[in-house]
């Protein structure tokens, strides 16, 4: 809501709400070109997660960490059933972890991992070239944001010094090489 006043008084503009100011579970939604509602990604900071963990511990609701097998290389997960439920994998599309801040971004709020059409970025890469719209749908982002990320990635590739192999380092990369751990 914006209000305009005469020149002797100040003008006030109320900023649009963001997900940080919304109550728990509330998420902003946008409408896609085909009229479908798309819920925007939600980021949880380390501080928020720690606060929630303390509340759960006080209520006695803390879940024990269970060790389980998960694939360590692309060759191990290549023939696994899809959708992939290993959301802790760095190639899974359900969550993004910021290594600098430790925050988590839930890319598909309101959905469970098994409800996603695509769950692995490597599976998408194996299909070959796809359009910005398709990438946007897979990652729950707009086509314009995907274009911006693409431009930034290409700029970073150009910055690789020739003394370190330049772009050729990435051309010869083999995702199926089992000697490389991800």
Describe this structure in words.
The chain is an alpha+beta fold. 29% of the residues lie in helices and 10% in strands. The chain is built from six helices and seven strands; from the N terminus they run βββββααββαααα.
Task: Please give the structural blueprint.
Elements: E1 2-3, E2 12-13, E3 29-31, E4 37-39, E5 42-44, H1 46-59, H2 74-77, E6 95-97, E7 104-106, H3 121-126, H4 132-139, H5 143-158, H6 168-171
Antiparallel strand pairs: 1-2, 3-4, 5-7, 6-7
Helix pairs in contact: 4-5
Keywords, separated by commas or semicolons:
182 residues; alpha+beta; disordered N terminus
Question: What's the short version?
Answer:
The protein has helices at 46-59, 74-77, 121-126, 132-139, 143-158, 168-171; strands spanning 2-3, 12-13, 29-31, 37-39, 42-44, 95-97, 104-106.
Q: What's the overall average pLDDT, rounded?
A: 78
- Which overall shape is indicated by the principal axes computed on the Cα atoms? globular
Q: Major β-sheet, in short?
A: 3 strands, antiparallel
Order of helices and strands: EEEEEHHEEHHHH
Distance between the termini: 48 Å
Number of helices: 6
């Amino acid at each position: 809501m914006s209000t305009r006043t005469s020149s002797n008084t100040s003008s006030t503009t109320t900023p649009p709400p963001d997900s940080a100011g919304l109550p728990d579970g509330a998420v902003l939604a946008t409408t896609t070109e085909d009229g479908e509602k798309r819920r925007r990604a939600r980021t949880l900071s380390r501080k928020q997660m720690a606060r929630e963990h303390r509340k759960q511990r006080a209520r006695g609701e803390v879940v024990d960490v269970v060790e389980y097998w998960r694939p360590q290389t692309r060759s191990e997960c290549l023939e696994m059933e899809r959708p992939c439920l290993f959301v802790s994998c760095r190639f899974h599309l359900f969550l993004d972890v910021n290594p600098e801040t430790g925050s988590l971004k839930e890319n598909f709020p309101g959905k469970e991992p098994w409800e996603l059409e695509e769950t692995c970025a490597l599976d998408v890469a194996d299909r070959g070239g796809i359009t910005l719209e398709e990438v946007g749908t897979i990652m729950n982002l707009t086509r314009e944001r995907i274009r911006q990320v693409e431009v930034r990635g290409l700029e970073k590739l150009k910055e690789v010094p020739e003394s370190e192999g330049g772009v050729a380092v990435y051309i010869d990369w083999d995702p199926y090489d089992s000697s490389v751990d991800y």
